[in-house]
Amino acid sequence: MFLKVYTTNLGFQSNPVPTFSPIFNPRTLPYKTPKLFESSSSHRNVFVYRSNVVDKQQLVSFNEPENKLIEALIGIQGRGRSASPQQLSDVTRAVQVLEGLEGVPDPTNSSLIEGRWQLMFTTRPGTASPIQRTFVGVDFFSVFQEVYLRTNDPRVSNIVRFSDAIGELKVEAAASIKDGKRILFQFDRAAFSFKFLPFKVPYPVPFRLLGDEAKGWLDTTYLSPSGDLRISRGNKGTTFVLQKKTEPRQRLLSTISTGKGVREAIDEFISSNQNLTGGQTELQEGEWQMIWSSQVETDSWLENAGNGLMGIQIIKKNGQIKFLVGILLGIKFSMTGRFVKSGHSNSTYEITMDDAAIIGGQFGYPVEMESKFNMELLYSDDKIRITRGYNNIVFVHLRMDGLKKK
């Protein structure tokens, strides 16, 4: 139900304010070092968050099939825009399972559907409008949908929140209930609410002139008994996954995508999971994409790549580690090395990188480089990993290659 040209594909099936994949960048603001961001010598505990472990609130909020969908969503960038085929397959399978289960019957008649929902994932069939392609960077913002049907003026609204300090854009639609699953809507007004202004600024959209383009419907195909998870499908075939409450890793990744308050979010995340120490303390094998670091890049691109400040980190069981960074047109920088556990801590590894090359197809050009540093595992599960590495920089990596089948 997103207005075709002017809103945000949140459940309204016209085409809304465009969304774009967040670009994860290790560049950050100058850095203070409270709590997590201090000398590695003060942190010797590894905090392992197993994929089947959630906090007490989340244990209440999500059942097992719902957790399957939540798990499939972890690590998908751009609310689905940058999802890999495997990620899309996992989400589709989890959605189909939930839609086949008994959720809340007649969800449009339930009070659980009311409130503000955060958009976590959406498919986008069809071609985006020119205006959608113009709004660069919207995926850096949080996107919500408000549903209020039990009022004298029932409405469903799409909201793009720029930040707590700036404000939001709200596009509203008059709504009516057709049956137990379907909501009919028609967009009729929109406005910016800026924190620094005491009044709203109208968003100039000629809703009346748009005719049928401003109308649509939204089916709720699954509403969780807790009222915290919803799956909806719009009149143009788009699927939406929305949540009222988000899982801790989702909140962390959402914060990283906005680039605001990341250090505080990581510190809070580590602190909230510090008692989950019953899992493994081994570096998990696989391909891990760096999505954030607490250190800005240096002027030397080669130095950044050699110290793991960009690109992919590949971990192998035999103690081998590789940094891989795409350069241009299939040309890559590759640097391999070894990791062994430090004798000082079960969660700290000694890393030696000493075999670097520029790779193009079957050819390689050796580069003389060597880098040695310690890497401390602060948190690890099957999808996300937080470490302190080169020069005490804190890194967040996402697993890119999926889990190995047992």
Structure description:
With 406 residues, the protein is of the alpha+beta class. The protein has 2 domains: 55-246, Lipocalin, CATH 2.40.128; 261-399, Lipocalin. Helix content is 17%, strand content 35%. The chain is built from 8 helices and 19 strands. Strands 11-12-13-14-15-17-18-19 form an 8-stranded antiparallel β-barrel. Helix 2 (64-73) packs antiparallel against helix 3 and helix 6 packs antiparallel against helix 7. The longest helix has 15 residues, at 85-99. It holds the Pfam family PAP_fibrillin. InterPro entries: PAP, PAP/fibrillin_dom. One of its GO terms (cellular component) is plastid.
Question: From the 3D coordinates, which CATH architecture of the largest domain would you assign?
Answer: Beta Barrel
Q: How many structurally independent domains?
A: 2
**Count, helices:** 8
For the largest sheet, list the strands in their spatial order.
11-12-13-14-15-17-18-19
Terminal CA distance: 41 Å
- The ordered string of helix (H) and strand (E) elements is EHHHEHEEEEEHEEEHHEHEEEEEEEE
Strand content: 35-45%
Taking all Cα atoms into account, the compactness measure Rg is: 23 Å
List low-pLDDT spans. 2-60, 126-137
Percent in helix: 10-25%
Can you tell me the CATH class of the largest domain?
Mainly Beta
The counted number of beta strands is 19
